[in-house]
Design a protein that fits this description.
Rossmann fold; about 240 residues; alpha/beta; about 30% helix; 12 strands; 7 helices; six-stranded mixed β-sheet; globular; binds glutamine
């Protein structure tokens, strides 16, 4: 398998705090490892791409979430099938909220989600803003930046993405950050996340390749700059 199809959902509406950098990181690392990235931009109303090896979604304003909510419900069955097929996904903030069961904005508007994550989010007038560090069993320590009004509660036995080391994460009270269902990862971490956490980018690529029977250890790239960022993030004041 040479090609890796990356589907970036709602790139116009859901792309705050440089979340597009996650796509650029995946594309470049895919190339540097000798594979061919094929990027599909998925927009409201379009047919969902046939080939999807990795799905990416960014953060967005409450109003942008309102704009796309009906379309998210429309593609919900397809997304669930991809999740069941172990397709890796990275869903940031606003998209993460819409992959839960519902988001009630701080003005009381209810936006339905598709329930990939058994979670619900309630908006609050006080936003949770700042740098975040998270301990994650499969992907090591993750560093990012959060800015959200929503407080997300994980329901029943929904697994988090990781445990908060610093920052607020899902709700600022229970020390959880994000959610994981199979290989679908939801998180509040912008940054963008992947440039500062190349091990997560490689983790997503590894999972995508594994689904095609390609077992590789992705290593050998020069991540000096990312290492400096991580060192600074680990020691800065929060
Ligand atoms: N509008 C959502 C909130 O404030 C998501 C924000 C974001 O994606 N950064 O909770």
């Amino acid at each position: 398998m040479k090609q890796i199809h990356v589907v970036h959902i709602y790139p116009d509406e859901m792309n705050t705090y440089g979340d597009r950098g996650n796509l650029l990181t995946l594309v470049k690392r895919t190339e540097w490892y000798g594979f061919e990235p094929v990027v599909h931009y998925y927009h409201v109303g379009e047919p969902f791409p046939k080939d999807a090896d990795i799905v990416l979604g960014g953060g967005g304003q409450d109003s942008a979430q309102d704009d796309i909510q009906h379309d998210v419900l429309r593609i919900g069955d397809r997304i669930h099938k991809l999740v069941d097929a172990e397709v890796p996904m990275l869903l940031i903030c606003g998209t993460y909220q819409l992959f839960g069961t519902r988001f009630v904005t701080h003005t009381g508007q209810e936006i339905q989600g598709i329930g990939v994550f058994d979670s619900e989010t309630i908006g609050d007038n006080k936003r949770l803003i700042g740098n975040v560090a998270v301990s994650c069993t499969d992907f090591g320590t993750l560093y990012g930046f959060e800015n959200h009004s929503g407080r997300t509660i994980l329901l029943n036995d929904q697994a988090p993405l990781g445990k908060i080391i610093r920052g607020n994460g899902n709700n600022g009270t229970d020390n959880t950050e994000g959610a994981r269902t199979r290989n679908a990862l939801g998180t509040y971490m912008h940054g963008p996340l992947l440039p500062a956490n190349p091990q997560l980018a490689d983790g997503l690529l590894t999972l995508a390749l594994r689904r095609h029977g390609v077992e590789v250890t992705l290593t050998g790239l020069d991540d000096t700059l990312a290492a400096q960022v991580r060192k600074s993030a680990a020691t800065r004041d929060y």
